[in-house]
Predict the 3D structure of the following.
Amino acid sequence: MLRLLNEGLSMDALRRAPKPQFSPLHSKLNGFARLSADEAELLLEPPSDRRIHGARDPILEGGSRQVRLVSSGWVGAVRVLADGRRQILQVAIPGDIVQSPLLADGHVVALTAARTTDAAPLLRRALSDEGEPSNLRIAWRLSRDEDQRNLLAQIVRLGSLSAYERTANLIHEVLIRHRRAGLGDGRRITWPITQEVLADIVGLSIVHVNRVLQQLRRDGLIELRAGYLAVQDVERLASAGFAPAAAAANDAAGGLSA
Amino acid sequence: MLRLLNEGLSMDALRRAPKPQFSPLHSKLNGFARLSADEAELLLEPPSDRRIHGARDPILEGGSRQVRLVSSGWVGAVRVLADGRRQILQVAIPGDIVQSPLLADGHVVALTAARTTDAAPLLRRALSDEGEPSNLRIAWRLSRDEDQRNLLAQIVRLGSLSAYERTANLIHEVLIRHRRAGLGDGRRITWPITQEVLADIVGLSIVHVNRVLQQLRRDGLIELRAGYLAVQDVERLASAGFAPAAAAANDAAGGLSA
DNA sequence: CGTTAGTTTGACCTGTATCAAAGCAGGTGG
DNA sequence: CCACCTGCTTTGATACAGGTCAAACTAACG
């Protein structure tokens, strides 16, 4: 067990991991469609309007038209009901771009301490009409499809899965997304959110989330402490969460309602 | 009560209601942005590839790139889990356009007897680059935003609402959408789905859906029988389902992840 | 060190699922 | 026109997943 701990979850190991050469956004897009040097450079230009947010800080209010790139921390699109219940609609990690969720009483908040920048100039550059069907555009499109897929996955989680399955499923999704963004090493990632936030994502009570996490630990599916998460057997976690097999990840895209 | 029944739910009254002059799609889009005569005409051209589906028939398979306009009946984007659990991700009524939900094991099926046509030519015409920022394009965009909003609403329903609230909320949404499409009279609509389908939408068991419906009836929120639904007090239904006030319907649009 | 935010534990309660069976149509064939 | 299906709705009895309440524990932090 000690051995497992050492190999599995070690903040030091994670910290010592080679610094990624590319930004999370780059890694993600490059994974969807190989980017040329020129295209890569577009993503590198200095970001505008850097902002630092504390956990719980609002980032975008209701009708905001802004678009922001998350550079560190987790961010969430949230809907708050009149009586205080809160549902996190969607989670964004570094490399993701968020905009306000349209919904009455919807907004974007920092789920942890986080940093964001204005993504508008970046998008303008990247999607300018010049390059024609550039790979960057293709990647952008696939990335949006992926976001939509994740949104639908959230519906399945909440509508059809048990507490245990939901939690495993979400953790799996987050792990895969970190991998795509070049964060962590594919098995270990930082895990900055509180159990309360997790509860608001998966639609459970804090207490029950706590118990489910313990069960996942007992089952050897995850190791989780001090802000770090490790997964020994990603496939096993995936199937515990009824996630589609990893192989099937590169299938068709799209979303309902053209 | 009898009086209420007569005024409230009467299949005859609904049948006798003046036939709408416009197609559901037209009503919906025209509600988002007033359409010119020319634009309206684009929507009228004879539809191609009409198809008739029985309840449960598949309409679009997994990776299909097709886009179909629902002309009658209800249609759903569905994900089926390995063990048979089924989650309806999104519902489409006449006037809605569906495409396959990207998701592994996702597809589009007829939730009731239904008719659809190929929406591709229609979209090509309507969105051709000529008209510039035509109202039709604007309406189309707003309509898509609305779809996205409904998707997020589904997440809130499943993640944060009780069975009773979920059901009220869904019925309210469907009622409003019928109104937009010019179907029913704003208070009464056809209700062609079985309780099993409803259960798969709101993530409950059939039996419990049945009990919740009875409670909604007892509370005087809905009348429901023989394929017809009537709502006396739409506002009351809305608040039972934690739906945003009707007035707030025309707010900003968008979705997370630009 | 005291305070505060987060996690964990225990006891208990309730909403919703499950199982089983009985009503109730509408449709078909005799 | 009846008798029988078959699919859907309704009811009852029972089980359990997950919520709620309350309190103890832990760790970070000034």
